[in-house]
Each structure stands twice: as structure tokens, then as C-alpha cells.
Design goal:
Strand content: under 5%
Helix content: 55-70%
Shape: elongated
Radius of gyration: 20 Å
Largest sheet: none
Order of helices and strands: HHHHH
Number of helices: 5
Distance between the termini: 35 Å
Number of strands: 0
Length: 141
């Protein structure tokens, strides 16, 4: 059986990109769906700014199942994200400040997407032109 050569730097970076997006999506859901449902909507919620829609009361308040479906997965995905960022930072020899900045970007809604875009742009700029040409698909013609 033939062996497949795997570039660990590319694998770690691709995994970082996937987890950055997943973490960002879960963080948006947590910030704009689960937390408001728990704290702002329903008579039993902490701040009770609005009543729960009729028939959907079980989705709102302190026992909202949205926390189980959004907050818990977000926590686990964020832990994986932090580990992958550390892996990428060791592979690419990032400084402590850059590593910490990328890790913390996963805690601010929308910022994770911006930082991921900038990290990809700067890392691609560092790649040799030959490596970039080999990764890009050939033009159809």
C-alpha cells in the first residue's frame, strides 16, 4: 500500500480555519439567541424584558434548552479551537502576543471571522510563490 504524504502544517491550518468559523457561529448563537432567551425573555428570566411567545415558554427563561444546544457545544468547540491555535502557533512560530490575540478573538462575536481572514491573508503572503501555485487549481480552458 502506498503512503500518503500529509503536510501537518496545512492540516493544522485547515483545522484552525474550520474551528474558527464553527466557534464564531456558535458564539453568535450564544450571544444573540441563547443568552437573550435565558436572561431577557420570559416571566421567570432574570431581567424579563419581554414575555415568551405563547406556546414556546419552555424555550425561554433560566431553564432554556437553548443553553444546552448552543452554550455547551460552544464551550467544547472553543476548547478545541484554543488547542488548534496553539498547534498552529507552534508550527508557524508565532509570538505569544499573536497567539493570545488569535485565541481571544474567539471570545468576541464577529472578531473571530475578521482575525481568521487576516491570519489567512498574512500566512499566505509568507508562503513561497511555488507553493501557492501548486495549491491553486489550474485555470479551465
Amino acid at each position: 500500500m502506498g503512503e500518503v504524504a500529509v503536510d501537518k502544517r496545512r492540516v493544522s491550518f485547515a483545522l484552525y480555519r474550520v474551528l474558527a468559523y464553527i466557534t464564531g457561529v456558535f458564539l453568535l448563537g450564544l450571544t444573540f439567541v441563547a443568552m437573550p432567551a435565558k436572561y431577557l425573555v420570559g416571566e421567570s428570566s432574570m431581567f424579563a424584558l419581554a414575555p415568551a411567545p405563547e406556546g414556546l415558554e419552555h424555550w425561554f427563561g433560566p431553564e432554556s434548552p437553548l443553553m444546552l444546544f448552543i452554550a455547551m457545544p460552544h464551550g467544547y468547540v472553543y476548547m478545541a479551537y484554543v488547542l488548534v491555535v496553539l498547534w498552529v502557533s507552534l508550527d508557524r512560530r508565532w509570538g505569544a502576543g499573536r497567539t493570545l490575540g488569535v485565541v481571544l478573538a474567539g471570545t468576541v462575536p464577529v472578531l473571530g471571522f475578521v482575525v481568521e481572514h487576516r491570519v489567512v491573508k498574512s500566512e499566505r503572503a509568507k508562503e513561497p510563490a511555488a507553493t501557492r501555485a501548486a495549491q491553486e487549481p489550474a485555470p479551465a480552458g
